[in-house]
Design goal:
Layout (H helix, E strand, L loop, with lengths): L16 H21 L8 E8 L4 E4 L3 E2 L21 E9 L4 E6 L2 E6 L8 H9 L2 E5 L5 E5 L3 E4 L2 E4 L6 E4 L3
Parallel strand pairs: 4-7
Antiparallel strand pairs: 1-2, 1-3, 1-4, 5-6, 7-8, 8-11, 9-10
Organism: Roseomonas alba
Protein name: DUF4329 domain-containing protein
């Protein structure tokens, strides 16, 4: 579904106190980095990871980390524990989707390319589904979106989504 046409139904905000804390932090971090992410001519994804640390399960975060383009940020998923402290457990991740369109020039022809600013796909899904992490984005219109990975189970130390299950995706209700 393309947000230019019609938005999917909004999702209610978190209601569990621990999820509310994570969601509020994700929203604050995304709104705080939005202006940097959308600077004209220097658009970049920014993001990071939200974690719970130690016996008290205190909340913390990495980043915001500046990406290398308008459609990629490395939030540390290739490293150990997403770059979080060793006694921490990642619970969510966040990043910006700063542009709706980009342009390509080939043989003097300019082509406008629609970016997936209103979808959670490919690398986004791999991070969330592969690690059981809720994902948050802010789009170019400053809407916050949330992705909840599908249910699954740990198999040989790796989270594996159930084969037929679907994750939930949509903008958060105001």
């Amino acid at each position: 579904m393309m947000a230019d046409e019609e938005l999917p139904p909004g999702q209610p905000k978190a209601t569990d106190p621990r999820e509310i804390e994570v969601e509020q932090l994700a929203i604050r971090l995304l709104k705080g980095v939005f202006t940097k992410s959308t600077r004209p001519g220097a658009e970049r994804e920014w993001g990071g990871v939200i974690y719970r640390q130690g016996p008290s399960a205190r909340i913390g975060h990495t980043g915001p980390i500046e990406g290398d383009s308008s459609h990629h940020v490395d939030v540390g998923n290739a490293g150990s524990n997403f770059g979080c402290p060793s006694d921490a457990s990642p619970v969510a991740w966040y990043h910006t989707h700063p542009v709706k369109f980009t342009y390509s020039v080939s043989n003097g022809v300019v082509t406008r390319i629609r970016m997936g600013w209103d979808v959670f796909e490919d690398g986004d899904l791999a991070i969330s589904d592969g690690n059981n992490l809720i994902g948050y984005i802010i789009d170019p219109d400053k809407r916050i979106w949330r992705y909840r990975p599908p249910p699954g189970q740990m198999i040989e130390g790796k989270f594996t989504p159930d084969a037929t299950a679907q994750g939930g995706w949509g903008p958060l209700n105001d």
